[in-house]
C-alpha cells in the first residue's frame, strides 16, 4: 500500500498546499502547546490538545505530500495510519496513537474524568516525537514549506 494506492481507492484527494497553509497549521500546534502547560486544565482537555497536535502533524505531512483526507467516517483513523507513509512511523507507535484516539473519544463523548495524568504524559511524549520528526522531514525534504 502507498498514498497513491489510497488515492486510487478514493480514501484521499489530491491537495496543493502552500507555505501559508502549513504556517497556520504549525501555529495551531504552538497554541495547543501553550494550553498544555496550564496544569489547571483537566487531563481530559490536555489530552484533547495533544491529540489535536498529533492530528495536525499528520495532516501537515499529508498536505505537504500532496494529499488530504475527505472528512467522512473513519478519517481520524486514516489520518493516523497515513503517518506510516509520510513520516515513516512504526506500527507500535501507530497502535499507541490509536489508543490515545480511543481514550480521547471516550472522554469527549462518553465519560468525563477518565483520562489520567499518565495518559496525558504518554500522549505528549508521542506528539513531541512526531513534531520533531515532522520538522526534520520538512527541513530535509520540503524546506519550501517552512520559515
Task: Walk me through the structure.
- There is one protein chain.
- The chain is mainly alpha-helical and 147 residues long.
- The protein has a single domain (3-145), classed as Four Helix Bundle (Hemerythrin (Met), subunit A) (Up-down Bundle), CATH 1.20.120.330.
- The chain has seven helices and two strands, in the order H-E-H-H-E-H-H-H-H.
- The protein has helices at residues 3-8, 19-36, 43-64, 75-81, 83-86, 91-109, 117-141, and strands spanning 13-14, 67-68.
- The radius of gyration is 15 Å and the shape is globular.
- The mean pLDDT is 93.
Give the number of DSSP strands: 2
Shape: globular
User: In the CATH hierarchy, what is the architecture at level 2?
Assistant: Up-down Bundle
**How many separate domains?**
1
- End-to-end distance: 32 Å
Q: What is the CATH topology assignment?
A: Four Helix Bundle (Hemerythrin (Met), subunit A)
CATH class: Mainly Alpha
Question: Helix tally?
Answer: 7
In summary, what is this structure?
The protein is mainly alpha-helical. The chain has one domain (3-145): Nucleotidyltransferases  domain 2 (Four Helix Bundle (Hemerythrin (Met), subunit A), Up-down Bundle).
Q: How do the helices and strands line up, and which of them pair or pack?
A:
Layout: H1 3-8, E1 13-14, H2 19-36, H3 43-64, E2 67-68, H4 75-81, H5 83-86, H6 91-109, H7 117-141
Antiparallel strand pairs: 1-2
Descriptors:
Four Helix Bundle (Hemerythrin (Met), subunit A), two-stranded antiparallel ribbon, globular, mainly alpha, 2 strands, 147 residues, single chain
Amino acid at each position: 500500500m502507498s498514498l497513491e494506492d489510497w488515492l486510487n481507492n478514493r480514501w484521499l484527494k489530491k491537495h496543493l498546499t502552500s507555505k501559508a497553509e502549513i504556517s497556520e497549521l504549525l501555529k495551531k500546534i504552538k497554541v495547543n502547546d501553550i494550553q498544555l502547560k496550564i496544569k489547571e486544565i483537566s487531563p481530559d482537555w490536555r489530552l484533547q490538545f495533544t491529540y489535536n497536535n498529533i492530528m495536525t502533524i499528520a495532516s501537515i505531512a499529508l498536505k505537504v505530500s500532496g494529499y488530504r483526507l475527505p472528512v467522512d467516517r473513519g478519517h481520524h483513523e486514516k489520518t493516523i495510519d497515513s503517518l506510516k507513509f509520510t513520516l515513516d512511523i512504526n506500527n507500535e507507535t501507530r497502535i499507541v496513537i490509536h489508543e490515545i484516539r480511543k481514550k480521547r473519544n471516550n472522554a469527549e463523548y462518553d465519560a468525563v474524568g477518565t483520562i489520567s495524568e499518565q495518559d496525558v504524559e504518554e500522549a505528549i511524549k508521542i506528539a513531541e516525537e512526531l513534531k520533531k520528526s515532522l520538522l526534520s522531514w520538512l527541513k530535509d525534504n520540503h524546506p519550501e514549506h517552512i520559515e
